[in-house]
Each structure stands twice: as structure tokens, then as C-alpha cells.
Amino acid sequence: MSKFNKNYYDSYDAVRLFLYVLLIPYVAVLLLMGVYMIIGTSMNVDTQTFMSYLPVVMINAFFMQLCLIVIYFVFNYKRGINFVKATKLDKKPNAWAIAIALCMGFAFMWFSSPLVTLFEQGLIALGFNIESDLGFSLNNAGNIIFAIIALGIVPAFIEEFIFRGAILQGLRKYGDWFAIIGSALLFMLIHANIQQTIYQFAFGILAGWLVVKTGSIWTSIAMHGLNNVFVIILQSIYEIQGQTGSEVVIDTAFILQTIIYTIILCGLIWLGVYLIKKVYKKQEKNTCQIVDAVDSKEGVQNYNKNLTFKQGYSEFIKDRTMRRDGLIGIFVAIIFIIINSASMLM
Q: Whole-prediction pTM value?
């Protein structure tokens, strides 16, 4: 009998996996720093100099993603989960849905930029040192290709597997909207990046809704990949041209641009949602609506789509294990954000 006989994620899987991907990578980073100190000492090179070497910088840039990959697949192996079926990776989306998702993703990036900039400028005014440096230059083809693959494409897959796969699907017993908002919140917290909190939370909600509506994780993977690759290419263009980004002046014209862009963004997202619903109108009629039921023979978990977010939250906190693990994860994540934010004030 195959070990991978579980074709779904449950709420235990969702919360525990979040705790693992939150805590283990930071322990691994501390161990990696210890290895660097040992190697640097053996080479008679101080740790700071050793860590400035390009191969080491590239390892550091990809290390967190590597940790997520190892944690995710070891977790699935230990739990006997067939991740292809559990993440809905085997569900092929409509080609129109992928195209619409990509357009929505591009619109989200482009038209939210003034709002994100406004938020970042507010943090700068409060004394935060906002940096977006990858740690290595993007002014040559080799580094750009590495960044696109390691920091663009790979994260689009592994982060979607974890957050819109395991976590979202595992929380859907508490209702779709609780799962969408909950997974978006955890997606935001895991990055511990205060200047991107609003963007990541909104992105997580959009990506989660697409997965729930289309029944396939490919739509969110496509949108996430576009987001990452676009940012890397844009940054490489700035570096090649010797630009550091234009100086932002928060004046009446910029505020007006922000308002106009935000209105356009809302309109485009509404249009995308309307089109996705239209594409999947027939499939929606066949969606199962059974409360917290698991067919152990088939390994399929059914979801209750009728629960509101408030009802789902009430059901979630009734479970002592879920409440305890969920609160621990959120508390630790907030501590990490505070520590990271404090370092940006120095």
C-alpha cells in the first residue's frame, strides 16, 4: 500500500505546517551563520568579509526558500500526503482563467504601486530604513537568470504550495472566506516585512480567492510568478541604467495619482472577478457543500462553503488545539516583525 494515501490537508496540517515554516528556517539560519564563522576562521577571514563573497551571498538569498522546500516535502512525507492532489495541482484550470489571473496580477502590481509607495514614505518619515537590496547585483545576465529562477519562479511554487495549498485547503472546513483571509494573514506574517504588509495581505486574499473559485492552484502560481519576475526584471533595468529609482515627492499631484490608480485598480479587479465567475459558472454548481466530512477511502476532504468568516472563526477557536497553535504562530510571527522593524530603525 502506498504511503501517500492522504489526498487532502486538514486543519492540523495547515496550522502545524505554518509553525514549522515559521520557526525552522530561523534556526537553520543561525546554524548556517555558525558554519560561516567556522569556515571563515579556517580561512583566516572575518565573518563579514566571508559573507560578502558572491557565492555566499547567493546561498543566503536562496537559503530561506530551500528551507521551505525541505520542510514542505518532509512534512508531506511524514504525514503521508499526496501533495499533487492535496494542493489541487492536478486540477487544470481553464486557459482563460490563467490569462485573467495574469492580467489581474499585473494590474494589482502596477496600479497599487502609488499606494505602496505612499505607505513606504510614511514609514520612512517615522525613521524606518526601507531597503529592497537583494544582496547582489543584477547588472549581468548570470545574476539576473539566477534571481529569476531562485527568487522568482521557485518561491512562486513553494510559497503557493504552502499557503494556497496546505494552509488554505486545510482551513476550508471553517468556510472559504475564513480560509482565504486566514491564509492571507499568515502569508503576510511569514515575510516579517513591515513595508509590504498591506500589499502581501491583499495579494494573499486575491490569490486565495482565485484558487477557491477555479479549483486549481495554477492560477495563483502564475500570478505569484509574474509578480516576482516582474519585480526582478524591473530592478535589473534600474541597475543596468545606473538608476536608484526616482525621488518620490508626496504632493497634491502624487496623492491625486494614488487615488486615481486605486480606483482603476478596484475596477480592474472587479472586472477580473466578474470574468472568472463567468468562466466557472457551470463548475460552481457542482461544488460540494458538506460540512467537515472526510471520505477516508477516497482521501477527499469536502468543504463547507456556506460558513461566513465570523462563523468559521467561531468554529476555529472552539478547537483548543487549533486555537493554541494558531495563537502561538501569530504571536511568534509578530515578534519577528517587531525585531525586523526595530533593526530597520537603527
A: 0.89
